[in-house]
Specification:
Helix content is 41%, strand content 4%. With 231 residues, it is mainly α.
């Protein structure tokens, strides 16, 4: 028996990778190729393309091939799936938990797209935080709230929209430990508890939709709050 070291892809140039992808794409006759098809005929590991070029679809584009059906799943859909699992579990999902009934995509989909699960999580965190808006609530309303006075009702310049985005909602729930900041109720301990993300200084009196002006509230505390501060 002859012992030989396995070849690695570390020293392979981008040009060699793209050329091999182009070669294999031509063999399929469909003008594209999926990661599983490439695994059968390619010279390199399919995950190398995601690590080197950012995603399988980007590598296909550089090779002059059209997106495969697998690459039609957008990064945002994959990230939204992680967010759903994270909320359901109340913590960061683990690789093996991609078999969870609520997961729409397999671990393989993340490995093929991003090269590894850890890289997928890293990019997910960047995606979640990409619309973060921090800073003290602006205007006279915030000053009045700090002093315990009733804020003046007036039109104030806006820096943010009223609606809380799904990414922002996830950030606030994660920051607040998936529990109501008024009564401590949590769906992780009490199934059926519904958490909202609510403005501390209400939007109607000048409060902004910034991360530091939002907090988790259960439906009971939130609906009973009205426009009162920190009910």
């Amino acid at each position: 028996m002859r012992f030989e070291l396995e070849k690695t892809n570390r020293g392979v140039s981008d040009e060699d990778l793209i050329e091999d992808l182009r070669r294999c794409g031509a063999q399929t006759g469909g003008g594209t190729i999926t990661p599983s098809q490439y695994r059968l005929v390619g010279r390199f590991h399919e995950g190398t393309f995601a690590k080197r070029f950012g995603s399988w679809s980007k590598a296909l584009q550089l090779a002059g091939l059209r997106p495969s059906r697998a690459s039609e799943i957008t990064d945002e859909k994959l990230f939204e799936n992680i967010r759903t699992l994270w909320i359901d579990l109340g913590r960061q999902p683990r690789y093996r938990e991609l078999r969870h009934p609520r997961s729409r995509y397999s671990a393989k989909a993340y490995k093929n797209r991003f090269g590894s699960w850890s890289e997928a999580l890293k990019l997910f965190v960047e995606w979640v935080n990409s619309d973060a808006t921090d800073g003290p609530p602006s205007g006279e309303a915030s000053l009045a709230a700090a002093n315990g006075a009733d804020p003046p009702v007036q039109v104030v310049p806006r820096r943010s929209r009223r609606d809380v985005s799904e990414r922002q909602r996830f950030r606030i729930l994660l920051r607040d430990g998936f529990r109501c900041m008024s009564c401590g109720a949590s769906p992780l301990r009490e199934p059926g508890v519904e958490l909202h993300v609510d403005h501390i200084v209400p939007w109607s009196v000048g409060g902004e939709t910034s991360d530091d002006n939002l907090e988790a509230k259960c439906s009971g505390c939130n609906l009973g709050k009205g426009n009162a501060f920190r009910a």
